[in-house]
Design a protein that fits this description.
The protein is built from 14 helices and 15 strands. The chain is an alpha/beta fold. The protein has a domain of about 190 residues: Aspartate Aminotransferase, domain 2, CATH 3.40.640. The longest helix is centred in the C-terminal third of the chain and has 20 residues. The protein is globular, with a radius of gyration of 20 Å. The two termini are about 20 Å apart. The structure holds pyridoxal-5'-phosphate. The site of pyridoxal-5'-phosphate (PLP) has 15 residues, from helix 2 and helix 3. Pyridoxal-5'-phosphate binds next to helix 2 and helix 3.
Length: about 400
Amino acid sequence: MPRTAHKSAELPPTAGLPLALADFLAAPARPLPDGLRIWLDLPHSPLPVASGTAALAVALHTLRQRLPGRSEVIVPAYTCPLVPLAAGCVPGLRVLACDTLPASPDLDPDRLARLCTERTLAVLPTHLGGRVADVEAAKAIASRCGALVIEDAAQSLGARSGGRSVGLSGDAGFFSLAVGKGLTTYEGGLLFSRQASLQAALKTCAASLLRPRRLLGLRRLLELAGYALFYTPSRLRLVYGRPLRKALRAGDELAAAGDILPSGKIPLHGLGGLRLRAAANALARLPGHLEQGRQRALERLALLRGLDGLSLITDRPGQEGVWPFFMALLPDKEARDRALDRLWGAGVGVTRLFARALPDYAFPDSLVSDPEGCPQARLLADRMLTITNSPWLDADTFRRILEDLRRIL
Ligand SMILES: *Cc1c(COP(=O)(O)O)cnc(C)c1O
């Protein structure tokens, strides 16, 4: 049985930025898109849309208008299962899963080179878990066959490479504002391109695709207010811990990892004014929150590195990722599962990122194909667990997680 850290505390799996009810009321210094443009030094203000998935759907629609003869999108075989559903919003598109490098979420360049053809519309290097993906490698391969590059930075708002924000090397990029990904509007996404003509095309395409959804907008506003009220260690037990433990008891790993795919259509709409206002106010606190997270991560990475047999996904020189959580790989599935038996459900912020490799989810109508197999992505799904980098994870609880891992290794 998992032990519980503190009877009343439940740590979130990621270092989300808390929201205050006052964030809904105060007039922000500037609108969210302008605030992000200035902070991240983007050439244009990003477009706010319903979700990261909706942002990707708009990007793919736009690129398809540019290259109408191309029908394939290549994505890492270990990524968010919503990614193919975004491609499913564009008639005629299909998704190819490309295996990752060993013990890394990056696309394997050799496999990518074999999958890229004159049918390839776009390649999606993905900045997973705050890390910075090798976009240059993907770009070089994509450009040889005339394909475009969309940077999936859903989990990496604030990450930089060579001092520059992620999302600016490819043709387009997007961030997610979903709950748990840092800055949040409960559901939301931001879409941008460094190229002026493409940014204008994304905007035109968004205007034609997005439809107002007033009731859904109201629901999301209430959900975001709920986040402001319940995102604390004492209240997360009710809204996060209890459903998690129920899913674990039922042996439902997909529900426990939050990997249940929506059954209906992906909602394509904009972001309401009040949610944008709350996020614009919260944005003022985000750089400090991320910097503290980075300091904490450096200390804790050093401790995690002291565990023989545990490997960590970290940054390469010149990269300055963000640290919502740590991605740790155990030697094999058996050891990882033993660690999860103790720690998942214990309220200490240990969980799984995605439960499966992409081809192993049930997608509609052969949306996803896996031409070469993806053994490395399956190893990631089998060997990885994540440890929260929430400021609420205190030194004592972190040490207890280390002890549990040491015993298993
Ligand atoms: C969450 C996520 C998405 C989708 O973003 P939503 O805002 O949840 O729709 C896309 N890609 C990755 C890597 C993600 O983690």
